[in-house]
Structures are given as structure tokens and as C-alpha cells.
Amino acid sequence: MPAMHPTEPWSPSPWAGSEDYSGSGALEELEELKLCPSWDLPYSYAYIPVLYLVAFAVGLLGNAFVVWLLAGRRGPRRLVDTFVLHLAAADLGFVLTLPLWAVAAALGGRWPFGESLCKLSSFALAGTRCAGALLLAGMSVDRYLAVVKLLDARPLRTPRCALATCCAVWAVALLAGLPALAYRGLQPLPGGQGSQCGEEASDAFQGLSLLLLLLTFMLPLGVTLFCYCRISRRLRRPPHLGRARRNSLRIIFAIESTFVGSWLPFSALRAIFYLARLGALPLPCSLVLALRWGLTIATCLAFVNSCANPVIYLLLDRSFRARARRGACGTIGRLARRVSSASSLSGDDSSLFRSGACSWGSFQPVQSVSGPL
What we know:
By secondary structure, the chain is mostly helical. It has two domains: 34-316, Rhodopsin 7-helix transmembrane proteins (Rhopdopsin 7-helix transmembrane proteins); 329-368, no CATH class. The protein contains eleven helices and six strands. Strand 5 (353-358) and strand 6 (363-368) form a beta hairpin.
């Protein structure tokens, strides 16, 4: 059959190609009907693997440091610390899969690691993305209760409730990742050039994926926006919050904004992709190519988010920078006396705390004041 004219609508068949996360996009040419021609972004096989490996290195070191900092902290932990700790663990699980997708991108989408690793890495991506969105929504609700409903919410703002919420988030995330185990696997690349790690293009999976996208991203996003709109209204009215608490809110808002900015383009394009696969949204060939390239860029943007939070802490939190310098000192840091940290990650706005900062000869105490997030 001759190729379809570029202006003719595209209605994908259930046996359309599959999606991969290597950066090569989500829409493959229909082999049976030879519909829309498609091309990868120029030189994507070169810069996408480098981007993934940089995100892996930064995300591994940064998130592991955050987990070490909070998990090893003695004494009572604030409620928001629980959310930050689990969020860092989710990002850590995400970045561990990035070297696999970097290799696949360098090979033009070919997956050399077998079907088991394909399923497990896809499961990890789906589960940790869902966990990240839900944990940030939980953090937003906690901030809303702490700022807007301070007195009324005390029975809900307990360490047991925070831990139970995080456990519930992980349970939902594991369930959200199960379709990847069932429907993702090795799919043949066009032209018989090997196999890629992709999904079965069945209508059942497309509909289920669209539903999960709405429930695990759009719904938490709506909750987050509602909470921060109410918080913003509260901040404009007296009595005004102290500087420390405002700074903590600013850090959390930066984390939330970065997550939304990174994942919203991917989620929006994926929703269009699912609708097109289901035949509910016919597309001309020019839009098919734009969707493919857009998903390539959006996937890179979303994956880089896994290393963003430690960078935000480093840029906006003085005490975190001090702790990072202290950790980088190695042996000198271990010889210094244990000090408390008063950052957006730990602390109390009724106290003054000191963090060790590294110098060439010895530790110089750096004083930092911060409040509960």
C-alpha cells in the first residue's frame, strides 16, 4: 500500500508500534499500513545518553546524601522530613534505571538487557513517578494544614499519620507500576534491527494507562494547586509568618514547581498519545512527527527531574550547603563533633542550630536559622 499523504488523519491500529524511554520517542511507523514516516531528533543518540548519565550521577549522589542525612538523624523527626526522605528514596530508585535507558538511547532504541530488566526498569519508572507525585501532594496537604488549619489539624499532623500516608503512597505506586510488568516487554524495532523495550499497543492497556495518568498525576496536581492557592491567600493576611517559615515554604514551592514543570509536558503529550492510539483523536502525519519529537524532549525533561531536588536544597538552603561541605570533607568531617542542622530538611524555628562547615584546617561553625516547613 502506498504511504499515506501527510495531511491525511492518522488513526493508529491496535498493533501500532510501541513506546520506549530511551529518548527515541513513542510513535513508531505502522509496519502494516506504512502510514506516517518518522525520524528521530538529529543526533539524539549522542546527547540523550550524556544527559541521562549526568542526571544519574547528580541524582545518585544528591539523593543518597539526602537519604543519609535524614535517615541517620537522631531524635524526633518533623512531619515534613518524612515526606522529604521518601521523596529522595523515590528519586533514588528512579535514577538507578537511567544508565539502562542511556545505553538504549545510544543504540538507537535497541534494548540489549533482556526482557526481565525491561519489565523491572519500566515498573520502577512508573512506580517512582507515581510515588513522587503523590508524596508532593501529601507534602502540600501537610503545608496547608500547618499554615491554614494549624489548630484544627493537630490530630492529623502526627508522625504516625505522616508515616501511614507515605506507606499508602508506596502501596498505590506499586499498584500503578503493575501494568508495566504485564504489558511492557521486548518489541521488534522497524526494519528488523533488534528489539526495543516497549509496550503492547492494546486498547485495554492504552485506556488503563490514560486512567492511571489522570489518577496519579492530574489528581495530585489539582490537590497541590488547591493547597498552594489557599496558602498564598493565607500569607497575604496578618498575622504574617516568620522569615524562617516563609523560606521553608519557598523551598517546597520550588520543589513542587520543578516537578510540575518537568512532568506536565510529558503527561500532556502522553495523554494525546493514548487518545490517538484509542482512535479518539485522529492526527495528521505532521502532528504525529511533532508528537514523537515532543515526547523525546519531554521524556528528557522528566527524567532530569530525578536529580533536581538535591540541587534545589543546595541552592536555597544554607544549612544543607554546610552539611554537604562537611560531608565532602571525609575524614575531617568524621573528626568534628556532632552538630545539629536547622535547615528546610530538619530543624525547629524556635531554636538556633549550628552546622559544620569545612575549611582547610578545621571546622568553623556556621549558624543558620530555619523553621518547620
